[in-house]
Amino acid sequence: MSDQLLVEIKNLSKVYDSGKAQVHALSRINLDVYNGETVGIVGESGCGKTTLGRCVVRGIETTEGQVLFHTEQDGTIDFLQSSGAQMKKYRKDIQMIFQDPYASLDPRMTVFDIISEPLRYNTKLSKREIEQAVDRIAEQVGLNRAFLRRYPHAFSGGQRQRIGIARSLILQPKLIVCDEAVSALDVSIQAQIINLLEDLQKEYHLTYLFISHALSVVRHISDRVLVMYLGRMVELAPTEDLFANPLHPYTRALLSAVPQPDPDRKIHRIVLQGEVPNPAAPPSGCHFHPRCSYCTERCKKEYPPLVENNGRWVACWNTAAVR
Q1: Mind listing the pLDDT tens digit for each residue in 221-267?
Q2: Does domain 5-93+173-322 have CATH number 3.30.360.10?
Q3: Which terminus of the chain is more solvent-facing, meaning fewer CB atoms within 10 Å of its CB: N or C?
Q4: What is the pLDDT of residues 101-121, one digit of tens each?
Q5: Alpha-helix runs per DSSP H in the chain
Q6: d(CA 302, CA 312)
Q7: Interatomic CA distance for residues 251 and 218, integer angstroms
């Protein structure tokens, strides 16, 4: 990881209007992403992880905010506001790997056509050059080039995910959003795909936003971890710092559920009370307070700001008590 900024996410918000109520899927997310790093994004289902990833790649339109992309030729551009030639120019630099390795692949297209499609639409390479590029990337992700004329149904889940990775890499992007990229795979296959992603990161100097609910995987692959709850950031810290000393009560509860390889090591499991609140009618004050054992009257009335201390960010009124 370098100290060179690649992407600045500023005040990113996404609101869905259901007619009867507004659902705040994302609320003012701020995150700096550096060249070559992996930022893990974790939280319960419905916390906004996938919405954040899809907003960054413009898979869905945001309500407000910016994704500032630092380019070599044009300086800093707002990727969300770019259009026309500029959009086409930088669209290839921000790609996504999807959760379901089968649903994200067109069953009517051969593997060769799936991987080569971005090249056909975004470059002026000859047919021979496209074939060479596809052969090269297939070999790098561990796909047998003899099978490129087959269709996705002929492949296993792990092989399909390699196809998805090859498709996302073919344009040589700078940032890849991995949306639960290994959650649909067996544990042994997960390890292979994680190792592949790490090898590709080193070779291509890639930057990852790694969205996952598998905390052990996030700990292995991430440089920093962002914890989200009900569409908001609650903690951001270097990976080992966060796992060694979580400062937010929600982070502590999440980490207490991670299985431990040592059966003799006793871990105090924190069981959260109640369900995740309805995002259309969130609790007053800190949204986590109805489930928090450290809750005070202030927590019920005021939402805590995200405060930085020694490179760590946390949104909690009672950080000292949590320690």
Answers
A1: 999 999 999 999 999 999 999 999 999 999 999 998 776 666 666 66
A2: no
A3: C
A4: 788 899 999 999 999 999 998
A5: 49-56, 84-91, 111-122, 127-140, 157-169, 187-204, 215-221, 239-244, 249-256, 297-301, 319-322
A6: 21
A7: 13
